[in-house]
Write a structure and sequence with these properties.
By secondary structure, the chain is an alpha+beta fold. Helix content is 26%, strand content 15%. It has twelve helices and ten strands. Strands 1, 2, 3, 4, 5, 6, 7, 8, 9 and 10 form a ten-stranded antiparallel sheet that branches. α2 runs antiparallel to α3 and α11 packs antiparallel against α12. The longest helix has 17 residues. The structure holds protoporphyrin IX containing FE. The site of protoporphyrin IX containing FE (HEM) has 29 residues, from β2, β3, β4 and α8.
Length: 513
Amino acid sequence: MPPEEPTIIATHNHNVLTTGNGNPVDDNQNSMTAGEFGPILLQDFHLLDKLRHFDSERTPERVVHAKGGGAHGYFEVTADLSKLTSAKFLSKPGIKTPLFARFSTVGGEKGSSDSARDPRGFALKFYTEEGNWDMVGNNTPVFFIRDPLKFPDFIHTQKRNPQTNLKDADAYWDFLSLVPESLHQVIILFSNRGTPYSFRHMDGFSSHTLKLVNNEGVAHLVKWHFKTDQGIKNHSNEEAMELNGTNPDSNVEDLFEAIERGEFPSWTVYLQIMKEEDASKYRWNVFDITKVWPHGDYPLQKIGKMTLNRNPKNFFAEVEQVAFSPAHLVPGIDITNDKMLQGRLFSYSDTHRHRLGPNYLQLPINQAYRTTVAHHQRDGPSTFSQNFNDLPNYEPQSQDPSGPQEQTDDIRAKMSKVQLEGTTGRFSPRKNKGFKPEDDFVQPGNLYRLMKGPEQDDLIKNIVAHMKNVKDQNIVKRQIGLFNSADPEWGKRVQEGLDAVKRPPPPQHEKKA
Ligand code: HEM
């Protein structure tokens, strides 16, 4: 776990108020002036330092997933995975690895409500002895889109209208209705799973297909599942709407208070495992994040348990500054050709440099503190490590045998190989050999039919409550068309629900006489 105490330990007693450079402060109530009633002096470093630091207090919030809470804990392996992966932290049952978890909503700002209808982020940083592995998933097994080129547009429709600065139901459903592959995520989001009771009562998923690679270099395709031991518990739409007003921080509060009470939430961890050679024969494109692998085809295999047992001591230093990236890998865990994942490999570290600066990996919460980090990156804002002292800052070099060397013979340090064919181009999956347009409707349709009566009722109610705000009826028609393609009853019921509600008239202000 990152050291509980700050890495720089003050020699002063904490009771002594000091300036940033450690000089004791004699007066924290009165600025230094020229004469009793005169102007403030430039030499009042304590005042200037305090104001200047305050002026810079805000770092940019995350462009998505801005609102969230987090906690420390550990992951314990409970199965023998040695044939599957060379990752040391997974090499035998009983190994415990410290981790930090952050849960979040996606679209809202840092002060937005925890009970918004939104997927929840489920991000984990495993501090392994071979570096940090980040599992940056959601509480849903699928996503709205399958190409990273669409991500900024998609997110813009979830944010505020550029003119009114209001949430925009037309933009929201316009985009979704034009992107049929979103339907699978839409049905999950508009079930009550879109408004979880708490972070403790929801599952987590890698959503993407990732790889585990063993000591011989053999890869298996895997999907990670974190099943809550607290049981799934959700809010109804009405409860969530009420909480938006009465306690917009309910999920952050619940996690913090449960851990303070010693009720440590846990998740049982499972894998779905597929042989690499089976991927091309499978009914679904395994690199399409809008699809699941039904458990009947690839059953869940239990491999471990994750427990959260320690609250952050400082929200900003830990929860706000933690920086997860799907590109943070360790030997034995690898990426795949999932296009969304490939886009994410770039985006996260890029945003971290913007949000936290080029040395964000030196921050205590992000440090790979269980291994020795050694490279030739130097300097830059906030270099608060020793900057590798006098070690060589270039390579190849012949001057210092203790300088970091590339590991050419270590098969575990290499990325697993991928066989490729064809030409470069921009390829639509819709034009792929074997893709049938109905493919995007089969899994959401199956999920609709699997839902029990009250679950279906809530789904329809939740969709109607949101779609009734759409002004452009062409958008409504197009979205109903997508529901119909998955199951005609689904489309019919949403249409009936919309016909039954009228948009409430805007509030009338009393005219002054
Ligand atoms: C956060 C980009 C898809 C899960 C973020 C952030 C960016 C981003 C820029 C802010 C990170 C930060 O400031 O630290 C993208 C792009 C995507 C994509 C470009 C698609 C191409 C996904 C998907 C998932 C996901 C498919 C889940 C399966 C998360 C989570 C966070 C996050 C959990 C919050 C991490 C935290 O708690 O700090 N994403 N994202 N994202 N994203 Fe994505």
